[in-house]
Structure prediction request, 141 residues.
Amino acid sequence: MPIRMDQMMQLLCHVSRRKRMKAAVKRSSRGGLLMITTALLGGLVGGPPGLALGGAVGGLLGAWMNSEKFKPVPQIIMELPPAKQQTLYIEAIAVLKSLDWSDFARLTSVVMNSDILQLQLAKLLENYFARELSAVIKYGE
Prediction:
């Protein structure tokens, strides 16, 4: 019996909740754009000293914006666009394809009773988040 994509996302959310996974998505491009904009505005208003001051202020604001803000992984999974969920679904199916299960409840039970399967799915999420979202994962807390 095939597993639906929404069911797989639920399962991945369940595993990441159990592992208490959080992710910080890096947005360095936004911070860089802010720094360039403030440097440009500072240069237009104050000449060379304004350029230096604008660049410094923009750099500080950009660094503050990019400070890692951790969000729960289940929340991020559910907010992913369908195309990214599909990619995650395909990768998770590859991990679980050898399991024998008759319905979603049975599959969930098998996964949640296996530390190895939970670890494999957590590692899959960690790699996916690093590769696709440039995110850093932390466990616990």
Summary: The mean pLDDT is 85. Residues 27-67 form one domain. Residues 46 and 53 are 9 Å apart (CA to CA).
